[in-house]
């Protein structure tokens, strides 16, 4: 692949920006265009559910820096709507088309909406994914709602609840699982998260669902009716039901893509429906589904900040025609701040059949837990105890036996537990 031509990047967020920079670093000197559905230049999303809601960080302060000169054209506020691979043209929502010689798909995700559109349009009902979403929610919180209801006890839901308590607002989380984050951490660590939030005054309603939202007669949300028959009065609702990957625009392109992501090979090249890689197209970030070698080639799509950076840099080198190195195999890493506690993780907990508290004590609030599967270490999670995490990341990458580190400081008896993930 030559060093010139026209490279188009669909997605003007973190992965798109870092992918563009990687292409320039790798010697691509041709025309470069970044297409983004949002009107903003790339910004840092982790602040949106944390410091931006509490007012500690302004919207302007979330802008991501350019690390290298891009000399790029920005097509912002215009989503991609179609892909013609035969003629190598991209269709945009404004009716125009863009030719490309190489294409990076970094289209990311959007917030999963409330399933009833009419209820989702009620005033006071919010989702949180974009900077504009965060600004609107921040304004609603500052207005002093009587009660905030958060539907979903995942990471975003828990972080928003934490921000509400920082603002001294009454808040309730409704979570269908037994405890918050049970699907990711299991019941043992999910119970630690539950206790953390309850100690700060968050009301948790686990094991039930919101059946419907009702208004006050004027089009504003007033309450939620739960599956157990109870009602919760709330004039501000945050729908935190996860994310939807932006792949609809690829329908009819012949690429292998669905709501779970766009399929890539081990190097990041996107696969056609016939299973063959398209050497002119790569994907990176939340939307890319790829076989992870640390998890026996299981296809995963990861919504992690560090992963978006690392995979985009790998894809950028690939599209620039440089040697990308070995197949992409970064150890997944993630962090969350809630209730004054920083939770960090490395690896993926899915499929774990064993859990051990490796350092510290959950009762003291500072500890590290390691997850195993079939006798191998696959993930580690720390609560305000991240200094051990790099050592466990090395063990995960080395496919070390479970548990991988013994005789370390602050280590107890290493009792092996069932992670207790809820049944699907």
From TrEMBL:
Domain Reductase C-terminal positions: 334-406
Keywords for this protein: FAD, Flavoprotein, Oxidoreductase
Transport in keyword set: no
Domain of life: Bacteria
Pfam families associated with the record: Pyr_redox_2, Reductase_C
Protein name as catalogued: Anthranilate 1,2-dioxygenase system ferredoxin--NAD(+) reductase component
Domain FAD/NAD(P)-binding: residue ranges: 7-312
Gene name in the database record: andAa
Matching InterPro entries: FAD-oxidoreductase/Apoptosis (IPR050446), FAD/NAD-bd_sf (IPR036188), FAD/NAD-binding_dom (IPR023753), FAD/NAD-linked_Rdtase_dimer_sf (IPR016156), Reductase_C (IPR028202)
Needed co-factor(s): FAD
